[in-house]
Amino acid sequence: MLMTNADFTKLQTIAEEEVKMPDKIREIVDKNNLLPSLIMKWQKLYANQLYMVKELEIDCCEMYGKKLKHYKFEDSCAWGTTKEIESQIQSDKEYCDLLRKTNAQKYYLKFIEETLNTLKGLNFVIKNYLDYKKMESY
Question: Which terminus, N or C, of the chain has the lesser number of Cβ atoms within 10 Å?
Fold first, then answer.
């Protein structure tokens, strides 16, 4: 199922909370213990979204082929050059709508990927912080 703008807004709020570094040492330890499941959750989101984007890209290719056939052979106007045909395809409302939908899903995918990378990096930040606290206590 494609992600909607409302879904994405909710996801942004969740991501903001999940990548936030806690202030207290106990909360940091708890966050460190929770990180593997958070990373797994975001990897699953990433994989699902990547699949949706790939499906949309295939849909775009299929539609492009159909539009090419239409404008080259079936249209009432005879388009003489490849540039003219491409121009017609690029200005076709149905094709543009599909491209917009695909680009929105790619944007969501990029956000999920960056959030996943941040969570993976948080693992090292927490480890370094906990090591620092251990050394500080000596």
Answer: C
